[in-house]
């Protein structure tokens, strides 16, 4: 009988405040969708870093005749055959080095033509203008500075470059988008909490007569508060469910179909459905508990009879 009474009170409260309940559902849904999206964005950045950092190399560009003629970067002249052999031998001795690949000027020219053959400058570039290089695969990409310290400024070496630098701008942009999403999520969360508290206040005020009678006949505070808490929890649960749908639709539309980033950006290792599904229970749990706790705190002040 008590359970039936509590459920009936929940239904009455939701009907009385239908517009505000709808606003709570939408606010909770948007804030939790942004929260889930921020978590997935952070995981996507982490996945991309693991994928790309494992593939990039450290490049040791050797001095060519043009560098030697310039006299700034290579004041001691172009690299010699003996210097190349010594550099390669020293690289292979290092424990952090996994593989060493030598790229000749002809190979560098061929690769340049494949990548930039359509540009105007590609038509005037000649093989002798290209740089020989050693492409070094490290066992731990984070130890790039060991290579840079050991070989930068050495005779025959024009520069040491970590290919990860070309990816950092992309990762910084994605991290910035993630922070922006979290800020908007925080704003939406505050709005949702304010709506929840206001909804509870209105609901408690509209039923102050009933709650006063229940207090007089000996009903406990928890029993009186339960319908209001359940109303807020139900609205939050609906918002969490809507947020889960938005995350699933977003993943499907952005990556699999619609925009279909997985087809257009095949070199990017996108997060799978398992990553999205793993976040849904957390979204549901927050959607359920957050309004319930907010309602409980608000009721301590507004349900005093």
Automatic annotation (TrEMBL):
The chain crosses the membrane at residues 21-41, 179-200, 232-255, 275-299. Its main location: membrane. Residues 56-160 form the FtsX extracellular domain. It is found in: Cell membrane. InterPro entries: ABC3_permease_C, FtsX, FtsX_actino, FtsX_ECD. It is a multi-pass membrane protein. Residues 183-304 form the ABC3 transporter permease C-terminal domain. Keywords: Cell cycle, Cell division, Cell membrane, Membrane, Transmembrane, Transmembrane helix. Forms a membrane-associated complex with FtsE. Belongs to the ABC-4 integral membrane protein family. FtsX subfamily. Part of the ABC transporter FtsEX involved in cellular division. This is Cell division protein FtsX. It comes from Streptomyces exfoliatus (Streptomyces hydrogenans).
């Amino acid at each position: 009988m008590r359970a039936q009474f509590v459920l009936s009170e929940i239904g009455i409260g939701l009907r009385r405040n239908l517009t505000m309940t709808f606003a709570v559902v939408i606010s909770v849904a948007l804030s939790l969708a942004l929260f889930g999206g921020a978590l997935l964005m952070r995981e996507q950045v982490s996945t991309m870093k693991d994928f790309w950092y494992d593939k990039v190399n450290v490049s040791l560009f050797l001095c060519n005749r043009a560098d030697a003629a310039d006299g700034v970067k290579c004041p001691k002249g172009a690299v010699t055959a003996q210097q190349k052999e010594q550099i390669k031998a020293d690289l292979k001795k290092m424990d952090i080095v996994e593989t060493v690949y030598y790229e000749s000027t002809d190979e560098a020219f061929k690769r340049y033509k494949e990548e930039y053959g359509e540009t105007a400058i590609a038509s005037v570039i000649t093989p002798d203008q290209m740089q020989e290089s050693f492409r070094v695969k490290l066992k731990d990409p984070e130890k790039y500075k060991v290579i840079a310290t050991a070989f930068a400024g050495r005779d025959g070496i024009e520069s040491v470059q970590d290919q990860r630098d070309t990816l950092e701008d992309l990762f910084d942009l994605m991290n910035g988008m993630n922070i922006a999403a979290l800020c908007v999520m925080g704003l939406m969360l505050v709005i949702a909490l304010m709506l929840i508290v206001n909804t509870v206040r209105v609901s408690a005020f509209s039923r102050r007569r009933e709650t006063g009678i229940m207090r007089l006949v000996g009903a406990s505070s928890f029993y009186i508060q339960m319908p209001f808490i359940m109303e807020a929890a139900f609205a939050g649960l609906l918002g969490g469910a809507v947020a889960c749908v938005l995350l699933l639709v977003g993943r499907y539309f952005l990556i699999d179909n619609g925009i279909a980033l997985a087809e257009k950006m095949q070199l990017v290792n996108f997060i799978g459905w398992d990553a999205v599904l793993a976040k849904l229970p957390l979204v549901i749990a927050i959607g359920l508990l957050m309004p319930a706790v907010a309602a409980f705190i608000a009721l301590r002040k507004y349900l005093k009879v």
